[in-house]
Design brief:
single chain; alpha+beta; 9 helices
Length: 495
Amino acid sequence: MMKKSIIAIILIVILGTAAYFIINTKKQSSEILTESREQSVLENTYNLSKDYLALRLMTDNVLVNAKNFSDYDSWNKEMSNVIGKWSEFDEKVTSLEVEANKMSEEKIGFHLIDAANAYDKQEISDIFDKAPAGKKIATLAKHLGVDAKMAFKILKQDQAQIEADIWNGEGDTFKKLEVSATVIKDTCKVAGFVGGIVLTGGTSALAAGSTLAKAAVVVGGADLTLEVTEDSANIALGDKNKVSAIVGDFRKVTEPIATILAINEIPNNLKNGFEKFSSVMIAVEQFKGAAQDGKIIGIQLPSASKGNEQFENIKKHQAPVYVSEIKPEDISKWLEEQGIKSSDINQKDVEEILGVLANSEPVPDTASTTPIVESPVISNGLSLVSPDGASFSPKSGLNFSAQLSNPEAYMVNGKNVMVWCIWKFYLNGQLYSEKVNPSTIHADVDKICEYSTLLIKDKGGLKVEFSLERNTGTKYSEQKNKETLVSTQRSYIVK
């Protein structure tokens, strides 16, 4: 009898333990799936917001700058390109809306973030928006879809009505296209900003340059800042210094600013597991009187630096977010206090950030949507330094060089790291060539990788994407996993 009791107890313990592990495993799997969906939604929100701003600039370009195209055929080709991209974009934001709604239904929230005034350090309570971030993003996606359909329809109508035989010398044609540009700008539900520049205010707004001093909100440390309501939205993309701004006079949202959603792309050397993005929502209702007083709401997020766990996972660490009321004349000082240089940017900077070229002056149509970058883009210390300049001829020979200015940031415990150099060449938007060659990151490295080629003989817009990868699997691993350490790109015109 005693033996039977002992056996029964052992069986109960075994079954209980098994049940615990099964339940715990399912819970962990559910949490991983939930976190994975959240990361996917944040990544798609960032990418599609950037795509939207690029399409708005391309649309303005093909309408307002139509007279600067060399002929009807080049303009019509670019018009078809933009129309096609709007159609593709509409499909993508529809998918984003579905995923964001799922995220909202799962009640995935963001932890309460303590905010404090940047000057008196007094903590502010209840700054987290009660509505789930997923709902905000789903609403944004809906607005983007409405804008995409409207732009697609207007561009299709203009393309159908304008034919080659009425192109040359027809001032009314160009006037009609400019009117269409104004209609799109005025009826879109979403306003766009890059750094301190109003992107959706037409080409004149671009030419005017940065307007940080006229901003309603300036966020330091954000790649993307969103303000979303049921009726409209504002998208503010950060500049190279991670400064984004929503300019008051061009906001689509008419009521006072209440909630800001900021999204950060975590730098490659700070990424942890599959987390690529960090996000935080801040309610700023108590600062809504700042605009009436002629002041700017300044939001300071944790800085992105190695070892700063607060930045790597704002939700987990509930890192402080500082909110300030700033006089317009003090905006540069406020940025300097955060270690950020003045972020005055121009049209060329905007084109570089968005990866498009406004056809403000007559140029070959192959370059109408290709970024022209005279100086290399430096990404986390990595840049493509050769060929130099914005254009080259294949006859001159091609030697592509990548420079790494901070090798110690990628070394492991001071030891050298073997890497693969991944080269991808896109000509006129199509993959043209790929190349992989080995290299080593060490303390004295300068030119981390070089590649000489005679393959590129065709003319047009050339984009070079370059990244450094390392194997993460051990010699005993059957599968050799790879990790991208850092990447950059540069664009040229091949003449």
